[in-house]
Amino acid sequence: xxxxxxxxxxxxxxxxxxxxxxxxxxxxxxxxxxxxxxxxxxxxxxxxxxxxxxxxxxxxxxxxxxxxxxxxxxxxxxxxxxxxxxxxxxxxxxxxxxxxxxxxxxxxxxxxxxxxxxxxxxxxxxxxxxxxxxxxxxxxxxxxxxxxxxxxxxxxxxxxxxxxxxxxxxxxxxxxxxxxxxxxxxxxxxxxxxxxxxxxxxxxxxxxxxxxxxxxxxxxxxxxxxxxxxxxxxxxxxxxxxxxxxxxxxxxxxxxxxxxxxxxxxxxxxxxxxxxxxxxxxxxxxxxxxxxxxxxxxxxxxxxxxxxxxxxxxxxxxxxxxxxxxxxxxxxxxxxxxxxxxxxxxxxxxxxxxxxxxxxxxxxxxxxxxxxxxxxxxxxxxxxxxxxxxxxxxxxxxxxxxxxxxxxxxxxxxxxxxxxxxxxxxxxxxxxxxxxxxxxxxxxxxxxxxxxxxxxxxxxxxxxxxxxxxxxxxxxxxxxxxxxxxxxxxxxxxxxxxxxxxxxxxxxxxxxxxxxxxxxxxxxxxxxxxxxxxxxxxxxxxxxxxxxxxxxxxxxxxxxxxxxxxxxxxxxxxxxxxxxxxxxxxxxxxxxxxxxxxxxxxxxxxxxxxxxxxxxxxxxxxxxxxxxxxxxxxxxxxxxxxxxxxxxxxxxxxxxxxxxxxxxxxxxxxxxxxxxxxxxxxxxxxxxxxxxxxxxx
Length: 697
Ligand code: ADP
Ligand code: SF4
Known about the structure:
32% of the residues lie in helices and 18% in strands. By secondary structure, the protein is α/β, with parallel strands linked by helices. It folds into three domains: 5-355, Aldolase class I (TIM Barrel, Alpha-Beta Barrel), CATH 3.20.20.70; 390-481 and 626-671, 3-Layer(aba) Sandwich (Rossmann fold), CATH 3.40.50; 484-622, FAD/NAD(P)-binding domain (3-Layer(bba) Sandwich). Strand 25 and strand 26 form a beta hairpin.
């Protein structure tokens, strides 16, 4: 297939100062959770984006000095020459595929606690750090300002030495000293670096000039600027100082990369924003500069990309998440394979990697983070040498991915789903408020399977152990999923709570199947969340929107605390407040009558009683392992039936994230004929010393 001429514009080369990008696909700086601690993984990850056709591939932020130390986060580092081998490996890997390599230099100012370096954070004024640590940043004096300028300059020179083509100065996400100086919120200096707009801009201007002078002969200079902080008059706004900054610096950089600040505004999930959601804020930029502009907004559709360019909003289609979900997105457009694009679902499981200091994972792309340590390629899986047929039971994310990847390997695969639709939990969950895009996990896999002649797909096919033994297909994967518990057992209550049965209990699964109708309209509903991620909050939202009086009870001190890692917690809590859900925190379940629920304060054990006609406990799940246990009990019959292996996948093995189910299915497909070595570490480990030796030689 060849490219649709409609999309030609996306493949035009674009000049950025002294360098030229081969197309308009631009992987903006994004965290990976790898950085300086997992340099081989980082290099392979970025190289894969270049291989997939992204014309520019950026690092994550690169800390320029030990006074900017985000430990334990795994960012890039340029503290001294010792950091060069890790970054040179990144540029080599990007250049090997003909793309430009960009690095985002940062001094994090008041956004760090410097836990590892133990140095005192630096800021425009004496302020408390914005981490939770009991650490203050000190106001920079003129010597500190001279130091800062020199550190930036040295970092830019090192970046050039490491082979980068584009050097970023970063004033975004409220995480950079350059933004801190710009901000009236953080800067109350009375010297020439504070007060008036021009004074607050001074350090930025000086560092732009220094960088240009140091590396501008061969490196392009990019500015990444937050044009709006969504804070109204107390922050930078796109009608106010956001616009003023771009106007004042308009022609100084070679490229503008513009976005929203902080990170939770920039990387909003699909639950709270649409594709292209940043356009209203950034569209002014091209009217005040002639330099190329890149912006983001979870663009996955080539039509939206073309529109954003034709309407004069962007010159480059910036992407972090769409490039994680599909590193090959540009190539697929180029080759006219639009249906093959694995679209990001906007769930932010990827951001949870950086936020928990580990290499990121992705719901849609199980190979992300495994490029180096497992040698997984997002598009290529080696064909099975002697492909023995496989039977996959259960058409949820685990079963669909296992079947898809097996079929890709040339295996004859039969996929049987007991219900009347594909997708398992994803089919049910994508009907919940704000989660429609999650259906893409199913749609992409069903689409890929439907064009494989070696894949047979059957709905309405609940299989029993007898069926499986009768079929005698050599390899059997059981991906039968899990069900929510209704007995209250979970994190807080480790044992079932017998008293729950004193009143009506409705399981999350009943609501997932039947919607709000599963819950009687008579009397108040209590959603008890001991799961701590999204499920309880979306069920509460669904029920409240359907007119139920909902109280959300959690033993935690806030709603959905794990959703901090997906950058959603604030919006989730706000949403529940807006739809009228009453929120009760720090309470466990203590007793029940027909229409009352006793709650115990988790600190004092004091009891409070609330009205409750129906309880929806969202605590934990149990694997649906009926089929597995039946088959296991008949293991002696497997060989005669021609069965060589039976393997559990996804939620049926252990309930977890959708990302984990997809990963489990993928892992199975890659190794289904081999018995795992249960004593071995199942991946390569970083050997940083060897990387450095290789670089030195
Ligand atoms: P996972 O997240 O691990 O993929 P899901 O719960 O999403 O798990 O999907 C499991 C799927 O398996 C459901 O669609 C369910 O209908 C199906 N299923 C469960 N038991 C059987 C069975 N015995 N035969 C066929 N399909 C089954
Ligand atoms: Fe998109 Fe979710 Fe993958 Fe992140 S984890 S890239 S949001 S699909």
